[in-house]
Design brief:
Layout: E1 9-10, H1 21-32, H2 43-63, E2 70-73, H3 76-90, E3 96-100, H4 105-116, E4 120-124, H5 134-140, E5 145-149, H6 163-172, E6 177-180, H7 192-195, E7 199-203, E8 214-218, H8 233-236, H9 244-282, E9 286-288, E10 299-304, H10 309-318, E11 321-322, H11 338-342, H12 347-351, E12 353-357, H13 364-384
Parallel strand pairs: 1-11, 3-4, 3-5, 5-6, 6-7
Antiparallel strand pairs: 2-8, 7-8, 9-10, 10-12
Helix pairs in contact: 1-9, 2-9, 9-13, 10-13
This protein binds pyridoxal-5'-phosphate.
Pyridoxal-5'-phosphate (PLP) binds near residues 76 and 203.
Length: about 400
């Protein structure tokens, strides 16, 4: 596909990220020259197997796991599905899953499919700031709960759940715990040993590596039942010939994320805060969705009263500004965000919400450009919208 080379202002890094040039560079030899099958017995294959294992060490270091606790998958979605599937298959007598109402569709829709198969799922509600009631979480764990699955950072609002405390509750009840940490690496330190969990999902394309590669961390002594069944790749835990170039790229992206974590985060947080406070101060009827803290340093979710996000996204697109309403995975459907609805937002507030998510390639000039353009665009949309004349909606406390 040919695209025009106009400037884009990419503020949608929770949807996907640019593949880092350093990552492309280490991948190319595996597409051009070293295309052997890592399972082959001859040297041309075995060499490639060694590079896969070296990448496994790098992604393991990103989360402080042992390399053999890392299982490569095709994406974050597969990792999430696999964790739930494994826990249910490992404990056939246990037919209950405990999760939250604000998970990514990779979890919510899998759970809905489980319910159709006769499993029981509890979707914990959240408070108006997006937080969880841990007392309720603890009370909702049942003797037949096979797994608790709670995301680390929300992809729409950036709100963080207290993963250490949830892991401790699960350990005290001897229930396996899974977290969807797809939005976390490169933004927060991840230490699976410190947290003490059983399963953790990551996706490479949220971390400046290509789409189509993810991982599932499975704690050493946790029982594992494969989801994708076939060859004996990944020590029999996930069939399918390894996506070698992507795995190697994921390894490099993990090294870069670890190396730049502290420094980049401070800068990105500064840009996000400038963008957010700039919008909230210059545009009347703009409100943040979700708690200010604890929150990812890169994400800001804002509702514009009397505005439909769909229209706003189109006008921003004309300027080359890329942002999302809801998550990229569910937008396109006209349903208001399930995350904002679970936080008790009105339908109109949810429909007027836009997610800005920054990344390592964003600059202050880009933030300034958005801050300069946005007030006039919002005013233009409001002048066309009958909703603008409605009584202002009471804002949900942050
Ligand atoms: C993007 C995302 C996923 C899905 O990852 P894919 O690799 O696109 O399947 C899952 N969970 C969260 C929180 C995400 O942001």
């Amino acid at each position: 596909m040919k695209m025009s080379q106009r400037t884009i202002y990419y503020l949608d890094n929770n949807a996907t990220t640019r593949v880092a040039p350093e990552v492309v560079e280490v991948m190319l030899p595996f597409l051009r020259d070293y295309w052997g099958n890592p399972s082959s017995v001859y040297t041309f294959g075995r060499q490639v197997a060694r590079d896969v294992e070296s990448a496994r060490e790098k992604v393991a270091a990103l989360v402080n796991a042992e390399p053999r606790e890392i299982l490569f998958t095709s994406c974050g979605t597969e990792s999430n599905n696999s964790a739930l599937h494994s826990a249910l298959a490992a404990h056939p007598g246990k037919r209950h899953v405990l999760t939250t109402a604000v998970e990514h569709s990779a979890n919510i829709k899998f759970c809905a499919a489980l319910e159709k198969q006769g499993f029981e799922v509890t979707y914990l509600p959240v408070e108006s700031d997006g937080g969880l009631d841990l007392h309720l979480l603890e009370k909702s764990i049942r003797p037949d709960t096979a797994i608790v699955s709670v995301m680390w950072a929300n992809n729409e609002t950036g709100v963080l759940f207290p993963i250490e405390e949830i892991a401790a509750i699960c350990r005290s009840k001897a229930v396996p715990f899974h977290t969807d940490a797809v939005q976390t690496p490169g933004k927060l330190k991840i230490d699976v040993r410190d947290v003490g969990l059983d399963f953790l999902s990551l996706s490479a394309h949220k971390l400046h590596a290509p789409k189509g590669i993810g991982l599932l961390y499975v704690k050493r002594k946790t029982k594992y039942h494969p989801y994708v069944i076939g060859g004996s790749q990944e020590r029999g835990r996930r069939g399918g010939t390894e996506n070698v170039a992507n795995i190697v790229g994921f390894g490099r992206a993990s090294e870069l994320a670890l190396a730049h974590l502290a420094e980049e985060n401070k800068r990105i947080r500064g840009l996000r805060d400038k963008l957010e406070s700039g919008i909230l101060h210059s545009i009347p009827g703009a409100v943040r969705n979700g708690a200010k803290e604890p929150r990812l340093p890169n994400t800001s979710n804002i509702s514009f009263e009397g505005v439909e996000a769909e229209g706003l996204l189109l006008l921003l697109d004309e300027l080359g500004i890329c942002v999302s309403s809801g998550s990229a995975c569910t937008s396109g459907s006209l349903d208001p965000s399930h995350v904002l609805m679970a936080m008790g937002c009105s339908v109109s507030r949810a429909r007027g919400s836009v997610r800005f998510s920054l990344g390592i390639y964003n600059t202050e000039a880009e933030v300034d450009f958005v801050l300069k353009q946005l007030p006039a665009i919002i005013a233009r949309l409001r002048s066309h919208s009958p909703k603008a004349k409605l009584v202002p909606e009471r804002s949900v406390p942050a």
